Amino acid sequence: MAERKDRQQMDLLAKLEFVDIDPVLIAEQLTFIEFQLYGSIEDTELLHLNWKHENPKKKKKLSPNVVKLVDRFNSVSFWVATELVMQTEIAVRAKILKKFVQLAEHLRNLNNFNGVMEIIAGLNLWSVQRLKLTWEEVGASKSAVEKLDELMENKQNYKNYRAALKGAKNPILPYLGVYLRDLTFIEEGNPNYIGKPEDGIINFEKLMLVGDVILSVKQTQENGYTFQYDSGLQEYLNKLLILPEEMLYKHSLLCENQTDPPK
């Protein structure tokens, strides 16, 4: 009986479009998916810039969950843009744009900062930003986007985001990109040894800085979200329609016949 109900739900969702689905439910299931990846990140994945290894196979072996979450981030961002530029009617595009803003706000309410950044990144792609006529139709939603932009902007080393993260209560899904950025600065800006390597004097200050970042990750991994698993929405969110950047731009030109180059 339960299996039949799940199949019926999946069949129903297969016929739905993003604009038809409650953004609260999407926010919950999106968070469910991504926290599983975030919660699976092991300490060793964050050492020695393993996630940036020049060999793709080695990178996936050394930092599998970091790579998966980064890939997921990019997929969701491009999905946002794809959903928008695939719509030829400006009224429908504006409705979808408002819905994505609502989704980002719900993600913020869930303390899913990684998800907020995914949506903002998608809305900031040039193929979406150039849709001036669409943006003119969204009214107050534009102000909401500006507030979220301000929250996640990289000014003063992500000052606003760091303050929000510090004041948030568990469960939390941090924006992984800031942790990776911090680790990169630590690794590249500090030597492994004090003086000559052959002297063997380990730079313990560097180890402590790396340890502090990893500890922050571990602390936010401890308390996960308790949403009920929705097989239909999970199926939908794991099979997102994504166009490559070149195709996004071509569709964007078709949406609004503006040929001005990116500034």
Commentary on this structure:
The structure is a single chain. By secondary structure, this protein is mainly alpha-helical. It has one domain (about 1-255): Son of Sevenless (SoS) protein, Chain S, domain 2, CATH 1.10.840.10. It is about 65% helix and about 0% strand. The chain contains 14 helices and no strands. Helix 2 (about 25-40) packs across helix 5 (about 90-110), helix 3 (about 55-60) packs across helix 4 and helix 6 crosses helix 9. The longest helix is centred in the first third of the chain and has 22 residues, at about 65-85. It is elongated and about 70 Å long.
Q: Unreliable segments (pLDDT under 50, ≥5 consecutive)? A: 259-263
Helix and strand string, N-terminal first?
HHHHHHHHHHHHHH
As an assembly, this protein is: single chain
Helix and strand content put the structural class at mainly alpha
In total, the number of strands is 0
> What is the CATH T-level topology?
Son of Sevenless (SoS) protein, Chain S, domain 2
What is the architecture at the second tier of CATH?
Answer: Orthogonal Bundle
Helicity, as a percent range: 55-70%
Distance from first to last alpha carbon: 56 Å
What is Rg?
21 Å
Total number of domains: 1
Overall pLDDT confidence:
91
Largest sheet: none
Tally of separate helices: 14
| CATH superfamily descriptor | Ras guanine-nucleotide exchange factors catalytic domain
At the first level of CATH, the class is Mainly Alpha
- Strand percentage lies at under 5%
Give the overall silhouette. Answer: elongated
